[in-house]
Amino acid sequence: MESLPFPRLTGTAEVSVRPAVPADAAAIARVQGETWRTAFRALLPAAVLDGWDATAAEAAWTAAVTAPPTPGHGVLVAVDDGRVVGFAAHGPAELDDGEQPHPAGPTTDLAVLLVEPRWGRRGHGSRLLAAVADLARRTGARRLQAWVAEGDAVTAGFLESAGWAREGWVRTLDAAGTPVREVRWHTLLEEDA
């Protein structure tokens, strides 16, 4: 009996991470707005969510892409079959009051990493995080850090699964008159990665 070859499926999903371009700003703002409204509804005050201004967000992301504050700042997008489904923004970390530089060396701040919830669990977040780590290493950074809302178990779990840990620093932000407490997470970058 002749064995039949496995069926061949036509077409494959094309997924990638690349530097953002100005034309991505609207999609980045869309991902941010959708993620905040769905995944962060319990973490952000209603005033922030109800007052979401997509036009202002698009303008802010256009500026972040076209005129970053330093050469070390950047925005990356995760793309799935031509559609922007997530993004990450990073840059040199600033020291908080009373903080000394980390003994491991320079730190890159992961300012935000969001994947639209309906595109979650497909590796987009991991690809974005790996790309930020690669870029940080190239700038001489030896450490990554990120501020995470205290009640954000999903992001905390994601970072923990990637080898990150809570660092002990805490800050409170004012989100439309509501305090949002954040904790800082960090990881050391391997030099030979």
Automatic annotation (TrEMBL):
It comes from Geodermatophilus tzadiensis. SUPFAM superfamilies: Acyl-CoA N-acyltransferases (Nat). The keyword Acyltransferase applies. Residues 15-190 form the N-acetyltransferase domain. Gene3D superfamilies: 3.40.630.30. It comes from the Bacteria. One of its GO terms (molecular function) is acyltransferase activity, transferring groups other than amino-acyl groups. The keyword Cell membrane does not apply. This is L-amino acid N-acyltransferase YncA. Keywords: Acyltransferase, Transferase. InterPro entries: Acyl_CoA_acyltransferase, Bact_Acetyltransf, GNAT_dom.
